[in-house]
Specification:
This protein has 325 residues and is α/β, with parallel strands linked by helices. The protein has helices spanning 42-52, 88-92, 102-112, 173-183, 200-210, 220-229, 233-257, 267-271, 273-278, 281-286, 292-296, 308-320, and strands spanning 2-8, 12-20, 26-28, 32-35, 60-65, 74-75, 82-83, 96-101, 118-122, 131-139, 143-151, 156-160, 259-264, 300-303. It folds into 2 domains: 1-100 and 307-325, ATPase, nucleotide binding domain (Nucleotidyltransferase, domain 5, 2-Layer Sandwich); 163-303, Hexokinase, domain 1. The strands form 3 sheets. Strands 1, 2, 3, 4, 5 and 8 form a 6-stranded mixed beta sheet that branches.
């Protein structure tokens, strides 16, 4: 059967037609990416996509949403849209739907993706374990966190979390300075304020202040671009610092969830993969005191599937509606 698969984040809403075979295998059509800021609501974005598809769409939809999905009204963490699940069938003209947290969708993608869809980052260069818990974490506009449990016989269960909103714990004087800067604006500083795409601005400006530099006002995109190209040594230092903090947070999540492996997800992680490999990410991931030896045994992978949110939303639909694999 064909369904519409949708992945809605803080900045972009991605749409694709997904085909789910009787055995549960999934094929994605060419995705369309719309800017959330260009549309007043999800419904107007849906209508835009429908027009791009010639005016008709399948009568089933799977939605991956950046934020909590329980309750009568779903509010996004990083964009102003709202969705009322009770009205989805009426508003979109569908007969069946699935709504999952965006990182629950990514966890579904992790569970179903082929081994060649993962790049080794740290720990043993081995396959992800077929049983036990896998932590899934990804920096983007926000910081997504989920985990999945596999039974070793092909079945799995996914749990969405809001782990991106736990407290940030600095480990050195530079992170102390980053925290002090953020506390001037926020009563409580979560890890998302440090380990998400927009956070690079605060990291960059903190490093500049520590060196007494006057720096131009740059957007997060500017800093990521300058840092990745090595044209700005301060931006490069900010990106390296980001990777250190990402390693610390990923390790904390793995400890908290009792993980037997970790997967980094999201477009940002993919874009900076070479920097992650060359940075102190692995050292920070393992730097958990008495548990350093345990952490060193966990494989850490980067999922490189081009659209894990869309693929995972379709997988969640197949799971919920009994289309087996």
């Amino acid at each position: 059967m064909d369904i519409v698969s949708v992945d809605i984040g803080g900045t972009h809403a991605r749409f694709a037609i997904a085909s789910i075979a009787a055995d549960g295998s999934i094929t994605l059509g060419e995705p369309e990416t719309l800017h959330t800021s260009d549309h007043a609501s999800f419904q107007t974005a849906w209508e835009d996509f429908r027009e791009r598809q010639g005016g008709t769409l399948p009568d089933a939809v799977a939605m991956a949403i950046a934020g909590p999905v329980g309750g009568e009204v779903i509010r996004f963490t990083n964009n102003p849209w709202i969705i009322r699940p009770a009205l989805v069938k009426e508003k979109l003209g569908v007969s069946r739907y699935t709504i999952v947290n965006d990182f629950a969708a990514v966890a579904h993608a992790v569970a179903r993706a082929d081994e060649d869809q993962f790049l080794h980052l740290a720990g043993p260069d081995s396959s992800l374990p077929a049983n036990g818990t896998l932590t899934v974490i990804g920096p983007g506009t926000g910081l997504g966190v989920a985990h999945l449990w596999r039974d070793g016989a092909g079945s799995y269960r996914v749990q969405a979390t809001e782990g991106g909103h736990i407290d940030f714990a600095p480990l050195d004087s530079i992170e102390d300075a980053i925290l002090a800067r953020l506390r001037k604006r926020h009563n409580r500083v979560s890890v998302e304020r440090v380990v998400a795409g927009p956070a690079i601005v605060d990291i960059y400006e903190t490093l500049a202040a520590m060196e007494g530099r006057a720096v131009p006002e740059l957007s997060d995109i500017d800093i990521w671009t300058r840092g990745a190209s090595n044209e700005d040594s301060l931006a490069s230092a900010a990106v390296d610092r980001f990777c250190l903090s990402l390693g610390s947070v990923a390790g904390d999540m793995a400890l908290a969830q009792g993980a037997s492996g970790v997967v980094i997800a999201g477009g940002l992680g993919y874009r900076i993969r070479e920097t992650i490999l060359a940075s102190g990410f692995e050292g920070r991931f393992c730097a958990k005191g008495r548990f350093a030896g345990l952490m060193a045994q966990l494989p850490v992978k980067l999922i490189v599937h081009p659209q894990p949110g869309l693929f995972g939303a379709a997988a969640a639909f197949a799971s919920e509606h009994g289309i087996c694999k």
